[in-house]
Write a structure and sequence with these properties.
Helix content: 25-40%
Radius of gyration: 12 Å
CATH class: Alpha Beta
Number of helices: 2
Oligomer: single chain
CATH topology: Double Stranded RNA Binding Domain
Structural class: alpha+beta
Strand order of the largest sheet: 1-2-3-4
Shape: elongated
Length: 74
């Protein structure tokens, strides 16, 4: 299942052991999970921000669509 928020696609998959795995296809390092869909979404959003922030700190490139977020977090 995909959810688009602020132009960003978040992908969710149910895990066999329960809960949801969440990822951002455009930023493969942004992966998280949660017991509920809401928790997985919140955690994925936080993972996205952390990946962008750490990439900016290390001078690593992020996809252009995330460049504005990288500047805001720097």
């Amino acid at each position: 299942m995909d959810i688009v928020c602020e132009g960003i696609t978040f992908h969710f998959a149910e895990m066999e052991e329960g809960g949801y795995l969440a990822s951002v296809p455009d930023l493969p390092d942004a992966v998280s999970s949660g017991l509920t869909l809401d928790e997985a979404f919140a955690n994925a959003h936080e993972a996205l921000e952390l990946v962008i922030e750490s990439s900016a700190e290390w001078g690593l490139a992020v996809p252009e669509r995330f460049a504005e977020r990288a500047v805001q977090s720097a």
